[in-house]
Amino acid sequence: MRAVVSARRTTATPGQSRRNAIAELVNSPIGSIAITLVVVVIIGLAAVGGTFLTSSNLTIVSTNIAVPLLLATCSAFALLAGVVDLSIGSNAGLTASIFADLVLHHWNPWSAALVVLAIGIVIGIVNAAVIVGLGAPPIAATLGTLSALAGLQYVVNGTNGSLTVLVTGLYKFANTTVGAIPLVVLLLIALVIVAVYVVTSTRLGRHIRAAGGDERAANRAGISVRRIRIGCLILSGIGGALAGILYIGQLGGSTNILGSDVVFLVYAGVMIGGYSIIRGGVGNPAGGAMGLLVIAGVTDIIAVKSINTYYTDVIVGALLLLAVYFDRIRGGDAYE
Amino acid sequence: MSQPSQFARDRQATAPAGAAAAPTDQAAPAIAGEGRVLPEGVATAVSLAVVWLLVIAASAIDKSSFLSRETVLSVTFTMAVLGVLTVGQSLVTISGGVLDLSVPTALILPAWVIATMLSGGISGWLAVVVGLAVGTAWGFFNAAIIVFGKLNPIIVTLGTNFAGVAILGIYVQNAVVPNHAGLSTWGKEYWLGLPNVFWVMVIIVAVVGYLLPRTRIGRRAIAVGGNPQAAKMRGISLRKTRFGIFTAAGFLAGLAAVLFTASQSSFVSADGTDYLFLTIAATLVAGIGLSGGYGNLWVTFLSVGLLSTIPTTLAFFGVPALWQNVPAGVILVIAVAIDGFRRMRSAR
User: Please, is B74 exposed, middle or buried when counting C-beta atoms within 10 Å of its C-beta (0-12, 13-18, 19+)?
Assistant: First the structure.
């Protein structure tokens, strides 16, 4: 479908081609998510008023988006390569708990962070071994690791069900703002830009998309699909551990249920932003980030208007269905 | 004798869509691979049964009180709701619907309706009928979005469950099931020493498991799960089959809600969340693959039994309740790894 559009474009006159280019941008996943985001901001301004774009509100929104954005950016590579890692949320929850526990046992925060990163890598390797090595379906396998890690998180948090720890340097780092935006979020935006560059403009990115788009064709073209998927799952594990450390910086502690909701949020966000958990090869880190921003905007409007926060999930559910519906209309895979 | 009929079958199976609908169902088992599925189902069943018995034996040897009536009742009560929900989940998976992620809403919505009606003094029978209808309606709602939107069920049910759980969170704070209601009394009674609700689950697993490979609609569902394009070519309506399957899953969730309300004294909206993971785990551990088209529903009885026994076993071994979620996850990973490995090797 898209191929037809672009083929027609090459034979068009310059004027037509510009119009078609605009139409194509509006029609593209990135275009529709950008429009959705603009609509959310306009609704926000209309409903909340000028305070919607004030610096204090921006700080709140961007602080809340930091962990989901980090998780989404790292784990979306796995989606692109045609595998899914559902264990990222409990990975972040467990590593946050372990990090807190180690620091409470008088570990140096840096060594604790290294241990936690190693745990994230191990989680990625376990997922990769089961999915790539043994050929288990990714959703089923990572649902299993999700449950196992969440169970371990209960164990680490102990009978109180929570750990409180203040790592001064980390707390300062997580709460430094540049203007209205937290430093962490600025770094994450840089990470998203790097991810966009890798996905769209490098050989590696092309190989990842090929691995997810058509596994057999990619293999025939000499791309090691297995190695790419293993790498992406390990990256996802690392992302989970980094998010765990960031949680401690932001919240100053861990709980039993920390990270249990974020996985749905992240995947709803990236799917609203043009990724698919069903087929690989589609999506763009910028789209995923905007998808999360849309959810963050809706959450914020509902919080500021003190509407029952449950309505956020109603809207997110509806947005998710609309997004996949329009993706299907646009020529994405139809389920028939 | 067998040779020519085999050829005739093949010809029918490869015939264009215009071929008569009548031979379709005779050919279905050949495509669905009944001959291939059965021994595999048996292997999974035997290994699951062995593991389950080992768990029970190990607990009983360590603590003889494990075989007490209390333990048996606690396990069988857990099995009842989980078992009926798992049958619905398995139907979705076998028919190629991947997963129904809306289990929490599908369970709590009808349960809440039933509890509210019972509290209002409405007769138990009417409440049960309405509860079943609400469950069915929820399944129908999912099916309508999936079929008319041509969207993947796993994403659709993720979205509808997001909205459903949120709406339940707004309206259901703490649903109380009145003790004196006939349904509650029935739910706490026994037959042959085991809870009534358990027997309902046994009947559902047995009947649905028997009918699925032996009825026209069941074989169609398996064929659609195995290869939708081939099924379509043979004149099976994908839309009707999917509508049927998701509506049936909704009905079963409604029935699970009846058993749930009958055996609970009160519940909150979040009580459905745990069942989502458990139904998926029970389905996959029973050897029903996410790719669809194969699996034996009867085996889910064993996986449900195993997953329901583990928490009690842990408690008996003195393992803190905190560890409860770990074994189920590990079992799921091992089960799908074994299944994936076997499939990968046979594909080679």
Answer: middle
d(CA B320, CA B338): 29
Domain total in chain B: 1
Task: Determine the structural domain holding residue B252 and report its residue range.
Answer: 35-347
pLDDT in tens, A230-253: 999 999 999 999 999 999 999 999
Tell me which chain B residues have a C-beta less than 8 angstroms from the C-beta of A317. Answer: 158-164, 166
ipTM over 0.90: no
3-state helix, strand, coil in chain B (%, to 5): 80, 0, 20
Report if pTM > 0.90.
Answer: no
Residue with the two structure tokens 């401690």: A248
Please, which residues 87-116 of chain B have a Cβ atom closer than 8 Å to chain A? Answer: 98-99
Please give the Cα distance from A54 to A63 (Å, whole number).
14
Q: Which of B146, B163, B290 lies closest to A318 in CB terms?
A: B163
Q: A230-253 as b/e, with b when 16 or more CB fall inside 10 Å?
A: bbbbbbbbbbbbbbbbbbbbbbbb
CATH of residue B262? 1.10.3470
Contacts of A145 in chain B (CB under 8 A): 329, 333
Of the pLDDT bands very low, low, confident and very high (cuts 50, 70, 90), residue A275 is: very high
Q: Which residue does chain A place closest to B284, by CA atoms?
A: A140
8 Å CB contact between A98 and A91: no
Q: Please report whether residue A60 resides in a domain.
A: yes
> Which one-letter amino acid corresponds to residue A44?
G
Residue A3 lies in a domain: no
Q: Between the CA atoms of B312, B318, B324 and B328, what dihedral angle is there, to the nearest 10 degrees?
A: -70
